[in-house]
């Protein structure tokens, strides 16, 4: 095994590895939604869907198989998927139908820098209203996209625009935190984190990192890019065939 492979724990980031992690978490925690008032040991299990709704749907199936629920945060400004595209919308509906929550993954950099929370709340409320109208479900929580970019994390109220802030100061103080950002464990290896005895935990995963077999993180990003390109091309070919047009090449 290469040193690089060992440091990144690539074998963790597979579908089978994910199922094992879910089972480990389930043995120690109840899976709760954001805004829970439970004092029993529990975990807020969260997915920021940056690249791949298709991978998100697969993880949602694994979680449903294992009898747990998570919150999937939808990014309205992704460069990798169009959340209003029929197939993508269908994936998120599938996720919700499996019993999971949908949240808003909010890209503050899309808007002008904020001088006060009121302007931020207005933008959050607008994007939440779009999600709720399309999916017909309440959106009760949001997370910042790329929170280290800009000054979004200065807004750490526990609730903004009627939604729980995943980066709110109360949540950060109460919940131990583990993240797989950029395709590797940034703070703790998740399997070890889950056995550390934390009473309350918040776990952030990004579905694109969890693939059928082990891959380097950059290769997984390319997999999402190539998969979308292939699907777009196939959709064009299928449309022309269906309506009887020449597909000039």
Shape call: globular
What is the total tally of β strands?
9
What is the residue-averaged pLDDT? 93
**CATH topology title:** TIM Barrel
Binned, the helix content reads 40-55%
Element string (H = helix, E = strand): HHEEHEHEHEEEHEHEH
Radius of gyration: 19 Å
Number of helices: 8
CATH class: Alpha Beta
| Strand portion | 15-25%
Largest sheet, if any? 9 strands, mixed
Number of domains: 1
Give the oligomeric state of the chains in this entry, treating copies of one chain as homo and distinct chains as hetero: single chain
Q: Indicate the CATH architecture.
A: Alpha-Beta Barrel
Structural class: alpha/beta
Q: For the record, give the distance between the C-alpha atoms at the N and C termini, rounded to a whole number.
A: 45 Å
Structure description:
By secondary structure, the protein is an alpha/beta fold. The protein has one domain: Alpha-Beta Barrel (TIM Barrel), CATH 3.20.20. It is built from eight helices and nine strands. Strands 1, 2, 3, 4, 5, 6, 7, 8 and 9 form a nine-stranded mixed sheet that branches. Strand 3, helix 4 (86-97) and strand 4 form a beta-alpha-beta unit. The radius of gyration is 19 Å and the shape is globular. The N and C termini lie far apart (45 Å). The mean pLDDT is 93.
């Amino acid at each position: 095994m290469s040193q690089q492979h060992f440091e990144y724990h690539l074998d963790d980031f597979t579908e089978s590895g994910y199922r094992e992690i879910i089972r480990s978490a389930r043995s120690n925690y109840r899976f709760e939604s954001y805004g829970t008032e439970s004092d029993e040991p529990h975990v807020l299990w969260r997915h920021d869907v940056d690249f791949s709704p298709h991978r998100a749907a697969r993880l949602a199936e694994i979680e449903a198989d294992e009898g747990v629920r998570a919150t999937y945060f939808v990014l309205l400004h992704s460069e990798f998927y169009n959340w209003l595209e029929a197939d993508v919308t269908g994936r998120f509906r599938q996720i919700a139908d499996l019993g999971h929550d949908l949240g808003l993954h909010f890209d503050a950099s899309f808007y002008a820098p904020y001088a006060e929370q009121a302007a931020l709340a207005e933008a959050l409320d607008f994007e939440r209203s779009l999600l709720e109208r399309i999916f017909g479900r309440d959106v009760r929580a949001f997370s910042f996209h790329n929170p280290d970019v800009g000054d979004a994390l200065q807004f750490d109220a526990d609730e903004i625009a009627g939604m729980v802030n995943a980066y709110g100061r109360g949540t950060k103080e109460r919940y131990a935190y583990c993240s797989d950002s950029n395709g590797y464990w940034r703070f703790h290896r998740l399997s070890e984190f889950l056995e550390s005895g934390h009473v309350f935990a918040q776990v952030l995963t990004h579905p694109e990192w969890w693939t059928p077999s082990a891959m380097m993180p950059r290769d997984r990003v390319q997999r999402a890019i190539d998969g979308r390109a292939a699907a777009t091309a196939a959709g064009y070919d299928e449309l022309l065939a269906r309506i009887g047009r020449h597909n000039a090449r």
